[in-house]
Amino acid sequence: MMDEYKKLLNEFSSACDWVSIREYKEVTDFIMARNSMPDQVNTVESHGVMVEVLYAGQVSYAGTCDLTNEGIKLAFDKALNFAIKTKDNNLCHFDDSIRPANTGENQSKTKIPFVKVSLAELQTHLVDITKALKVSEEIIEASAWAMLTKTHVNYVSSSGAKWSQEFSIVSKDFSATASRDNENQTRSYGMNGRQLGLEDFDMELLLQEAKRVGTQAVELLDAEECPTDSLDLIIAPDQLYLQVHESIGHPLELDRILGDERNYAGWSFIGAQDFGKRQYGSDLLNVTFDPLLESEMASYVFDDNGLKAKKEYLIKDGILLRGIGGIESQIRSGIAGVSCARSCDWNRPPMDRMGNINIEPGDSSFEDMIKGVSKGIIMYTNRSWSIDDYRNKFQFGCEYAKLIESGKITKTLKNPNYRGVTDSFWMNLDKVGDKNTYEIWGSPYCGKGEPNQSIRVGHAIPSCLFKNIEVFGGA
Amino acid sequence: MEKYFNEISSYILSNKDVGEEVTVTLTGEKTQFVRFNKSKIRQGSDVHQLTLSMAIQKDEKHYSYEFSITGKSVNDKSKVDSVYKVCRSRMEDMAKATFFIPFKNNGSSSVTNTGKLVEITELTNIICVETAHVDLAGILTSGICYRGNVNSLGQSHWFESESFSVDYSLYSEKEKAVKGSYGGSAFELNSFKAKLEESIRNLKHMEKDNKILEPGKYRCYLAPAAINEILDIFCWGGTSQGALKQGSSPLLPYENKGKRLSPKFSLCEDFSLGLTSQFNDDGEVFTQKLPIFKNGQLENLLVSSRTAKEYGLKSNAANSDESLRSPVIYSGKLKREDILKELGTGLYISNLHYLNWSDQKQGRITGMTRFACFWVEDGEIVAPIKDLRFDDTIYHFWGDNLEQVTDFAETELNNHTYSSRSLGGSKCPGMIIKDFNFTL
Fold it and tell me: Chain A partners of B246 at a C-beta cutoff of 8 Å?
């Protein structure tokens, strides 16, 4: 198809300053099991092209599912027509340097390709997981699901870019709800997605985990309520990844800082003047944008503007260095950015997306973190999240917690929550866990943009200890 | 498009095998999106997308495959052939559906809402010119949406609707903001200008320095847009019979602990709003009006065929997620001109942001104030407020603490555009609530 697209570009390019075609095809199999029985199975396939036209400094887009030459030509005409007739009202004026002419190929590294196992076999595995979740008659609901996604992207431009990428992604979760005397508690594995093959379905490990999850759901029925207090808080990676996502990832997006998102997701408490100077967190905080970390969910070699991917420090020793902005935002803002212009499908234009945003591991063991706490809490697995439109005032709820007293774990706590303000929260970072506490998490559902786009993100995170955090329990 | 859907769906149905039953669903749109920042064009994109779903049943097995089509008969028929092949191969070793619901003929319907849309570049330039003196961010969406559904038992539904919307916010130099929206099936310049002028007037109210309030319980007026945000999150599990059975519903305290809502609270699924198709993803037709809460009493929950089968209940043709698609909260008696007087001293909240269940099983919701929110003293607006986080349960703010409901309600279109344009919308009044709980 790339050669066919190239021919079309040759035909189109005389009418505009630059043009590209991005073909995107994604097939996702969704498989589910509930209460020791198979549940729904379905497949969703999205396939189309986005034609991108640069004319008089403006980039215009037209996406179509009509993959015939006639259909792509019609899309080109629509994008060009829009650019011509609205050229006096452009916000930005770019030249073709915003679309580098890179070439190459990239593919997720997998050991067991999806085709090696049938959906029926996978569903049997999921049924087995729900059986393992039901550790007691008090488990009233046990469910497990998996999504297997294959994505192919082909990109060609009139200036010579020609690259393709192929991603293999496994997302999964399972959960158990326990009930007694009108109280219900849910514990889950935690939704996670990775660029892997079916080696991610290590059934021996998953069945062990399912038993743990089921057991902890029942354990929560006997647990004490999380206290309301200001305490030391250790946050496990399956919660901290969302904290990083909401209170570091989003506020550092340059398109938010430039105001593009003001009407929907919001603005940012960070301004252009903060880069290179602002103390974002304690000097233990090191945050990277790393699109090259193997198996992390949002790894890639080219972003959707064709910029080559590269690891960069966003925050080093607590100081804010760089924003999450692709080439267009970098030019508009004058702020150093990263290769992060991405779109969720063929039918949406690229914009600044966080990709893989990671906390680099520190040197504290999990045991050392606990030993240093006279009274505190460890929280595991996100169940609720909310933050303001400037990414300051947040509140998170977790599924499961442990109380620490005099350097030792003593009790299980239910309905744990914490709240705070981004600025002071990261300054209270007191210990960063070592490699042994480090886990790779990813979500398929980061929402942003007008029109809306839900995209995959990755976060590789160690456990971390924070001082004096406001914690509280249930209703 | 209806003609093409009939052609391609006929091809699908005529190629089913003996013993197979098939349901075909189309989701389609031709939409233009224009994104604005500083009253200029940030990104313009045109989207033409057609998605077919083929759900196949055979030997009590059920599998669905959704895929993009080109709109060109030759290409799409070839794609249908390959999808059939994949489905049949996969269904061979697939387990029987645990709660198998055989397709049936749920009747026929056809609705076409034709609009008078202005050509997109003309409309874009009008918006840029009319807003050149202010700082506007937002999105213009314009075009036509299609929904089609047929099955091999004779069911046939069609819905298409042309509409546009301008969803925007205006900003002052001090970064104060107000929210506005204008939409419908025909653009009228004078109406748009009037809406814009109202927003500009509201922005002027925001020029005073922010009043910073300590967390605590405050008397509040929540405008219809704010109530709509709460309703939106309430629909996430709150109206689902399945969620109640599976132990995750916010109505568990209502069912098990005697918690009640206010007699002033009535909620209905009401398709007379005319904003979306009355048939669901399986082509089942929902009744035009179904009360959910009537004067605080739970009357009905949404029951999908799947939930009905699993728990031995009667389905009311709800979608599989059992959320409301066209909800209406009933109006009360509070007149618009009396809102500030009745509020007295407290908060006037125009919008809320980023709501989520903070404890779903207890009905507790958290979220932030956003855009034009004011401190009011003795019925007079004093100053805009610094944003606040609330965290409170439906049993408080829609229960004993619900004091008054306005005698007017505002319709808000569902403007979500994840994957494709959403249809539907809601109609909500404003409410005066005492002791609304703010935590940060």
Answer: 140-141, 177
- Check if the beta carbon of residue A230 is closer than 8 Å to that of residue A470: yes
* A472 contacts A235 by C-beta, under 8 angstroms: no
Answer positive or negative: Cα dihedral of B327, B333, B337, B339. negative
Q: Tell me the CA distances in angstroms from B293 to A171, A317, B72, B264, B327, one per residue in order.
A: 37, 54, 47, 10, 11
Judging contacts by C-beta atoms under 8 Å, the chain A residues touching residue B212 are none
What three-state secondary structure class fits B273? helix
Q: What per-residue confidence (pLDDT) applies to A1?
A: 84
Mutate: best of A262, A304, A343, partner B, most B CBs <10 A: A262
Which residues from A are below 8 Å from B358, CB to CB? Answer: 384, 386, 395, 397, 417
What are the tens digits of pLDDT across the range A264-319? 999 999 999 999 999 999 999 999 999 999 999 999 999 999 999 999 999 999 99
B177-189: pLDDT as tens digits: 999 999 999 999 9
Tell me what pLDDT residue B121 has: 98
Which of B44, B48, B247 comes nearest A141 by C-beta?
B247
End-to-end CA distance of chain A: 57
Q: Report the alpha-carbon distance of residue A123 to residue A42 in Å, rounded.
A: 12
Q: Answer whether A328's CB lies under 8 Å from A375's CB.
A: no
Closest listed residue to residue A146, CA positions, set A178, A169, A176: A169
Q: Say which of A82, A258, A345 has its CB closest to residue B121.
A: A82
CB count within 10 Å of CB A445 equals 12
Q: What are phi and psi of B7, to 5 degrees?
A: -70, -50
Of residues B24, B32, B28, B25, the one with CA closest to residue B1: B28
Partner B contacted by A251 (CB < 8 A): no
pLDDT band at residue B277, thresholds of 50, 70 and 90? confident
Nearest by CB to B37, from A74, A88, A259: name it.
A259
Per-residue pLDDT band for B228 (boundaries 50, 70, 90) equals very high
Give the per-residue pLDDT at B398.
Answer: 98
Q: pLDDT grade, residue B96 (50/70/90)?
A: very high
Predicted TM-score of the model (pTM): 0.97
Partner B contacted by A388 (CB < 8 A): yes
Enumerate the CATH 3.30.2290.10 domain ranges in chain B, comma separated: 2-206
B245 pLDDT higher than 80: yes
Chain A residues with beta carbon closer than 8 angstroms to that of B137: 259-263
Reported ipTM: 0.96
CATH number 3.30.2290.10 given to B2-206: yes
A123 touches chain B (CB under 8 A): yes
Looking at the complex, does the CB of residue A117 fall below 8 Å from at least one CB of chain B? no
Q: Does A1 touch chain B (CB under 8 A)?
A: no
Q: Alpha-carbon dihedral of residues B30, B36, B39, B41, nearest 10 degrees?
A: -70
* Smallest CA–CA distance from A186 into chain B, residue: B248
Give B363's DSSP letter.
T
